[in-house]
Amino acid sequence: MRYIILITIVLAAIGNWNLLRAQPVENKLVVGTIDSIHSGILNEKRKLWVHVPNGGTNNDFSKQKYPVVYLFDGNDHFNSVMSMVEYLSKHAICPQMIIVGISNTNRFRDLTPTKPSNTQMPFPFFVGGGKKFTSFLEKELIPYIDSTYPTEAYRMLIGHSLGGLMVINTLLHHGHLFNSYVSIDPSLWWDDNLMIKQADSLFQQKKINGKSLYLAMANNGIAEGSDLAVVMKDTSAEFGNAQPILLFSDLLRNKKPKGLQWKFQFYPGDSHGSVPFIAEYDALRFIFNKYSIPVSLMYQFPDPSFKADSIIIAHYKSASEQMG
Question: Of 4, 42, 212, 255, which has the fewest beta carbons less than 10 angstroms from its beta carbon?
């Protein structure tokens, strides 16, 4: 009983300390910084929304560094992802992380990896700038974030819709840039399912060691209770973006790309617009599924005969190896 009381007192003290540190400054709640970078590659200034845990002033651990989450369509997804990471990290379900939201200037240009080969489709002339945008990420943005903020080497990329398409393109062709990838209802129909065709070949040619992919799909016109396997093969009906995503998930299932930890999740109750919020949460839980100490073990900590120190050290050693 005394161990439980002691732990309760310690946790209460920690909670009060964090509460004191979280007090708003000058009656303002500050969750991040609006930063910017001038891109020579894109020939424009790009606005960034950046959140650093504890405002970057954590004195609990000297020289503390954090993994980084990069968000396409940052102005749409920054608040939700930042809140989730803060909450989950508080409960040791995922690590504290820096969040970098990339605001758009020309979304249709940057988040389309190719110019469609089907010239009959009425696309604007400027589409297909994904190659330049990826070069901006690799040669300008990531080095800038690493030199300006206290970053660890671990990086995650999250994108929705066309952003999800670019997430898949980055995994396939520039997989070294990020450790984990979250593709939410991606526009895999782009350029006559080009990403699917490329993946079919690439999954056989190379290993994707140490990478994670969470693939989410909203309900794109699929009737309740429908068999997804039937939907994928049904050429007589229109299912919007569903069939290309199902084809890609089937490719993952059949090709079993070496070294890739992946999960596909269908959200029958969510539309294209509502799915990012729940998918972002589920993706964090999946990617960091081995980060937190199992709940069953936590209840044994008060037992003086339980070797909690060795369990904790072994667990986080394993988590560190997983995250690099």
Answer: 4
